[in-house]
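QA checklist item 7 of 12: single-chain prediction sanity check.
[x] sequence parsed
[x] length recorded as 182
[x] structure emitted
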Amino acid sequence: MATEKEITKIMGVMAHAYPRYELSADSLKLYGKMLADIPSDILEAAAQQIMAELKFFPSIAEWREMAHKLMVGKLQIPSAFEAWEDAMAQVRRCGDYYRYQLNQRTPEYSHPLVEKAVQVIGYRHLCESENISIERAHFFKIYESLLSRAEEDARMLPDVRAVSQRYIDGVAKLTARLGEGK
């Protein structure tokens, strides 16, 4: 993760690309706090891309968005079509491994999101489907939903995630207590 010193250095370089923007100490501090959860190499690459594309000094949101785009590309997350092709390749390779012990092959997906989408729709369902085009449409919706959720989670600030998690934990405890009362 980027240190305040690294972020200040990157912003100093950016100040030369945007000479009309005045970097105040408060701005440096705020940017430092809001960008600290992003790796410094990603921040630097995002800054370079921003300087090449944007006419005005980036807001925190613009910088985070560019960094997120770079991180998602770095992780090589497959598109919905690529995910579908991966899922179908595993169905062809492994067949109905769940039914017979003769075939010891189990599916090995290129990305955890592909595996999760297959789990949601059901591997067995994909193997036994009589209308694969409908399954493909369902798979695309499921995968895109999972991808969207993963992207939202990746963009969330650590402090915001901690607050959210406290409330999620509280709801889980309340739900458990209500379940015990029945």
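[x] summary fact logged: Residues 117 and 143 are 5 Å apart (CA to CA).
[ ] second reviewer sign-off
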